[in-house]
Amino acid sequence: MRYWNYKNLDLNKIGDMAQVAGLRRYEFTEGKAKGVEAVEIHTGSGLELTVLPGRGMDIAWISYRGIPISYLSKTGVVSPAYYESNGMNWLHNFFAGGLTTCGLLNVGGPEEVEHPVIGKRSYGLHGRISNAAAEQVSLFEDYVDGEYQMKVSGVVKEGVLHGESLTLRREIETAFGKSEFTIRDTVTNRGAKDQDIMLLYHINLGYPLLDEGARVECDAKEIIGQSEEAIAELSDALKMTNPVQDIAERCYAVDLNPDHDGNVSVKLVNDNLGLGVQLSYQKEQLPFLNEWKMLNTKEYVVGLEPCTALPQGTQKAKETGSIITLAPGESRVFEITYKILDQGEE
C-alpha cells in the first residue's frame, strides 16, 4: 500500500493543519467510559495515540498507519468512578492500552502496611494513580523554530489526610511527521515528611504487532524468571508464540546494559509485519525492566515495563534498597521515548 509522504507537505494546499495532523479533545458519552476525557494525537506520519486525562494521563490506543500497536483488555476504557482499590480488584479497571501507570505508593501485588496515625492501610494491586483524573490539563500545538509541535500535559494528584501528598505532572510531546513521542513525568512530594514512592510504566503491546515469530530485542546483562514456569522457559523469554489456552503469565526481570550516555533501549520487533516498537530511557531514572509475557487466548499481550522497582511490592523494594524516598518539596523526573520502527522508513 502506498502512503502519502508527510515530508512533501505543501502548506499552500491545506486550509488548516488539522487537515493533516493535530490534537482532538473529546469525552466518552456512554458505558463505563462515560465522562472520561480523552485527547487524540495525530502526527501526520501515520502515528496516532489517545491520551486519557480522565484516567491518569494514560494512553488507551496507539496505532501506526492503521495498524494497531497496543493491547486493549476485556474491560475497555473504564471511568475512575468504578475503581475498586482492595486486593486484585484493580483488574476490573485495567484497560491496559498503550500505557497504564502503576504507583505511586505500590507496584506489585496487594499489601498491608502500618501507618502511625491511620493504622493498617491496604495497598491494592499496582496502586491508585491510574484511576485518578488529571487537572490543569493543557493542550498545545503550533510552530516552534520551524517545527509543528504538539503537547498534552496534566497533573494527577495522590493524597490522603494524615498521609501522602504527591503530584505527577505528565507531558506527552511529539511533532508533525514524527513516528515517536516522549512521556515526561515529574513526581513531587508536596507533603511535610519524607515519602516513599514506586513507579512502573505498564506499556502494553498487542496483535498484530505481537504475533508468532515476534521477538523482544535488548542488550541484557541478565534475565531472571520470576516464577517456576518462567525459569523453565528462560531460553524463550524474548520469543513470542501464538496464544495458548489457559497459559499463565510469565514475568522476567531484565537487567539492561546502558550505553556510554547511560541510555538503555528495548524493542518488540515483528519482521513479518515490518514493524517494531522501541522504548528508550535513562537507566538511572528507571533501573529495572519487567517483561510481562501474557500469551493466553483473548489475553494476548506483552508488557515492556520500565520501573523504579520490580513489581514485588513495597516491602520487597525496601529490603532490596530500590524504593525511592522524596524529601518534602523534592521532585524526580522520569522520561521515556516511544518510537515506531518501520522497516520501510528506517
Précis, in short:
The chain is mainly beta and 346 residues long. Helix content is 3%, strand content 48%.
**Total separate domains:** 1
Number of extended strands: 24
H and E string: EEEEEEEEEEEEEEEEEHEEEEEHEE
Tell me the CATH architecture. Distorted Sandwich
**What would the principal axes of the Cα set say about the shape?**
globular
Mean pLDDT: 96
- Contiguous runs where pLDDT drops below 50 for at least 5 residues: none
Continuous helix count:
2
Strand order of the largest sheet: 11-12-13-14-24-20-19-16
Describe the overall structure:
This protein is mainly β and 346 residues long. It has a single domain (6-342), classed as Beta-galactosidase, Chain A, domain 5 (Distorted Sandwich), CATH 2.70.98. The protein contains 2 helices and 24 strands. It has helices at residues 228-232, 314-320; strands at 22-27, 37-42, 47-52, 58-64, 67-68, 71-72, 96-97, 100-104, 111-115, 119-123, 135-144, 147-159, 165-175, 180-189, 195-205, 215-218, 220-225, 250-256, 263-270, 275-282, 288-296, 299-307, 324-326, 331-342. It is globular and about 65 Å long.
Task: Map the helices and strands.
Blueprint: E1 22-27, E2 37-42, E3 47-52, E4 58-64, E5 67-68, E6 71-72, E7 96-97, E8 100-104, E9 111-115, E10 119-123, E11 135-144, E12 147-159, E13 165-175, E14 180-189, E15 195-205, E16 215-218, E17 220-225, H1 228-232, E18 250-256, E19 263-270, E20 275-282, E21 288-296, E22 299-307, H2 314-320, E23 324-326, E24 331-342
Antiparallel strand pairs: 1-2, 2-3, 3-4, 4-5, 6-7, 8-15, 9-10, 11-12, 12-13, 13-14, 14-24, 15-22, 15-23, 16-19, 17-18, 18-21, 19-20, 20-24, 21-22
